[in-house]
Amino acid sequence: MKHLRLKAAALAAALALLCAGCGAPASSAPASSGGASSAPASPAPSSAPAQETGTLGEYRAMWVSYLEWESFDFSSEAAFAADADEMMQNCADMGLNVVIAQVRPFADALYPSELFPWSHLCTGAQGQDPGFDPLAILVESAHSHGLELEAWLNPYRVRLNATRPAGELAADNPAVLHPEWVKEVDGGLYLDPSLPAVRQLITDGVLEILRNYDVDGIHFDDYFYPTTDPSFDEAEYAASSSGLSLEEWRRENVNQLMRQVYAAVKAEKPAVRFGVSPQGNMDNNYNSQYSDVSLWMAEGGYVDYVLPQLYWGYGYTTGSGSTRYAFENISAEWAALERAPSVALYFGLGAYRIGDGDGGNYAEAQSGWQTGHTLADMVEDGRALGADGYVLYRYDFLYKNGAWADLAAQEVENLKTANAQ
């Protein structure tokens, strides 16, 4: 598909789409798409200093997930440092300035913690000390290459399924120490967002990182409530006597966490960013995960940045024929949302789509991701829309892409060119 350059007319059309599309049912969209929904009133957050951006300029970042750690060498400090150095060098060479490293994926840690056990990713067994501090190495390596390092945390998830994390949970995992804090959903385990003790644990975990490491940001991903099933927390909801609907109550539980963590970050280290990466589908965020992202964007006191995952190609079309989530449309829709002066907007771009495509119901669903410059085009269009930067998901699909190595290399070269402008 020929690349679409987004002009002012496209933005105006997106504004009209946004107004007309509010409240569209989540079932009409793919699992990670966008669209604002009206939200109940929420208590005004306390004032906090705006983020200090320093000389970073455009935010150009790479996500490095726990899946990347599965191929890192944890056998020794030197081996891990060598892998980290190679990764940071590649990111710096591309012209990026931030690495977002997942260091707490399953209520466990890639650093020594008094609150969470060692991650199974380090040794194969959760709770086992690898003999060195991976996060310290990542921070040092990033900074030595002129990059900033954000600590990526999954706030609620303890177990994704029977195999992740591998093996048994460690005896000092919070879910083992406090089983009353945990809910099970489809074989996964999650901390209960309604509990003040859980919010305090998450906040304390953020402060532990800030006090022990020179990180430049704290990053939450898009996993909030894991289900819409009323039975998930019916006892807690009944006991709350809040007067809110179940949906409003759940959203306020998440809002409380975001306000609490933001305030803690700003009190401890005002220059550190706190941001979130929600799904690109605002309907899903609001109605399925109970994360009121439009509120967080519009008001100060929740986040320093919002980073929606816009993982669809140009012209993307759903099975029902909707093009709302085509990159040129959904990016403009997010850019048109009300945004407080202290809140930045970055676009998450799907490097994992390279070669394979996005599965949409349109002719270019695969070929549109085989141009070698799709990601660079998206970067340019994000700039035209006024986005403050972008993040690539994820490192291995650009630098260890065995299936589409040539295409990935072309994407890297074109991103370098885009970043040099």
Automatic annotation (TrEMBL):
Domain called Glycosyl hydrolase-like: residue spans: 60-355
Entry-linked Gene3D superfamilies: Glycosidases
Segments of this protein annotated with the region Disordered: 32-52
Protein name: Family 10 glycosylhydrolase
Record-linked InterPro entries: Divisome_Glycosyl_Hydrolase, GH, GHL10
UniProt entry keywords in alphabetical sequence: Signal
Compositional bias segments (type: Low complexity): 32-50
Highest taxon of source: Bacteria
Signal peptide: 1-28
Lineage start: Bacteria, Bacillati, Bacillota, Clostridia, Eubacteriales
